[in-house]
Write a structure and sequence with these properties.
Order of helices and strands: EEEHEHEEEEEHEH
Number of strands: 10
Strand content: 25-35%
Shape: globular
Helix content: 25-40%
Largest sheet: 4 strands, mixed
Strand order of the largest sheet: 1-2-4-3
Oligomer: single chain
Distance between the termini: 19 Å
Bound molecules: manganese (II) ion
Structural class: alpha+beta
Length: 193
Amino acid sequence: MTRTADIVRQTNESKVELGLDLDGSGTTDVSTGVPFFDHMLDQLGRHGRFDLTVRTAGDLEVDAHHTVEDTGIAIGRALDEALGDRAGVERFGDATVPIDEALVRCAVDLSGRPYLVYRADTPVELVGTYETTLTKHFFEAFVANARLTLHVEKLQGESSHHIQEAVFKAVAVALRRAVAVTGRGIPSTKGTL
Ligand SMILES: [Mn+2]
C-alpha cells in the first residue's frame, strides 16, 4: 500500500501543485517564490523523511499571505489523503528540537480533529522577505485540512531564523513519528480517526 497524494489546487490567488510520499527518503523539491518559506518546507520534508514536491505560484505582488496559506491547505489535504483511513499509524508523535540557542517542542495527534496551539513568537517579524507571523497561519491551514491536533511551543530562542527553523524541524520529526506504521488497526477506542 502506498501512502502518497498528488494535489492540484487553483484559486484566483494561487495555483499549488503538490506531491507527497509519506514513506519517502526526505527528498524535497520546493518552489513557492518565497525563499525563506522554501527553506522551511525543505526542512519539513527532509526531517519528516517525506518526499515532498511543491510548486506554488501565488499573488506575491500582493504579499506572501495567500501563497503560504494555500500551500498549507494543499500540504494538509495531501497528508490527509496519503494517510487514508489511518490504520496502523502510531497516531501520536512529539519532538523537541534545538538549533543553537533556540529550542522548540511539538506534539502531534492524528486525531481526525483539527486543533492548533501555537506559541512561538519571534523577536523580529521579518526573515528575508518572509513575515514570521505567517507561520501560525500556515499551520492553521495545514491542521484544518490534515485533520490533526498540533501543539507548537517555543521554549527559548533569540534568532528569529533559528526559532522558525526549529518550529518546522520539530513539526517534521513529530509528524514522522506519528505517521509511522507500527500496528494494524485504527488506534482509537472510537474505531475511527
Ligand atoms: Mn536555516
